[in-house]
Design brief:
alpha/beta; 2-enoyl-CoA Hydratase, Chain A, domain 1; Lyase 2-enoyl-coa Hydratase, Chain  A, domain 2; 2 domains; six-stranded mixed beta sheet; three-stranded mixed beta sheet; 9 strands; 15% strand; globular
Length: 258
């Protein structure tokens, strides 16, 4: 059978494309499996510096495949496999960019929230629609709640209201909303900026951003000082400082950006 998710690598960017438009890229068993496989491949590929999650059709992702969920008991629901995908994106040592040419709902919004950067067309809409079909946005809350204020989360999770891309950007769910003809350029702008970062430094920075900080400021400074000193003295830090002094791009920058 044809793939429901495709992987293509070019110029250091791995583009993973959801291609199941007949059901609005719903998270079916096959799509979940293929998405995990391609994420694993992209993360392991040393040639990949940035991962872009793209889609075909008018909808980025409609959430879980409700046709599969209707007849399954709690132990066999597809949502049981979903945390692994969100965690894979959240903890990826390589930055992940979501590219939305259309709406996202429920689990699709969870994927967006797990990404480091999210860019949307300004006509896209979003909703945490779970409560309106009698379920709870529980799994996606793990990635979504760190992006929202408590007040915004209560409103949007409890009402299930549809909101537009401008509000999504205002509340921190996405980074920017652009006209459709500017989407490719905006995603490339972010991908190019991310590719300028040193691979190990980017991975360590991602881990730092998502780690729980010690309650005591002194302990937090001690941890961050150790991390900072390690990278100043490390291979990438030394190369970056040499490159700065020599007025050239560091060795890790892709040739296309030099």
């Amino acid at each position: 059978m044809d793939e429901l998710v495709h992987l293509a690598v070019a110029d250091g960017v791995a583009t993973i494309t959801l291609d199941s438009p007949h059901n609005r890229n719903a998270l079916s068993t096959r799509l979940r499996r293929e998405l995990r496989e391609h994420l694993t491949t992209a993360i392991a590929d040393d040639a990949v510096r940035v991962i872009v999650l793209d889609h075909t059709g008018p909808v980025f992702c409609a959430g879980m495949d409700l046709k599969e969920s209707r007849s399954a008991d709690a132990e066999n629901q597809g949502v049981q496999e979903f945390p692994a995908i969100l965690q894979q994106i959240w903890t990826s040592p390589k930055p992940v960019v979501a590219k939305l040419a259309g709406p996202a709902r429920a689990g699709g919004v969870g994927i967006i929230a797990a990404c480091d950067i999210a860019v949307s067309v300004d006509t896209a809409t979003f909703a945490f629609s779970e409560v309106r079909i009698g379920v709870v946005p529980a799994v996606i809350s793990v990635t979504v709640l760190p992006r929202l204020t408590t007040r915004q989360a209560h409103e949007l999770f409890l009402t299930g209201e549809t909101f537009d891309a401008r509000r999504a950007a205002d509340i921190g769910l996405i980074n920017s909303a652009v006209p459709a003809d500017g989407l490719d350029a905006e995603v490339k702008r972010y991908a190019d900026m991310l590719a300028l970062g040193a691979p190990k430094a980017l991975a360590a920075t991602k881990e730092m951003l998502t780690a729980q900080r010690p309650a005591a400021m002194t302990e937090a400074f001690d941890q961050m000082l150790e991390l900072s000193a390690e990278y100043f003295a490390g291979e990438e830090g030394q190369e970056g400082m040499r490159a700065f002094a020599e007025k050239r791009k560091p060795s890790w920058v892709p040739d296309a950006l030099k």
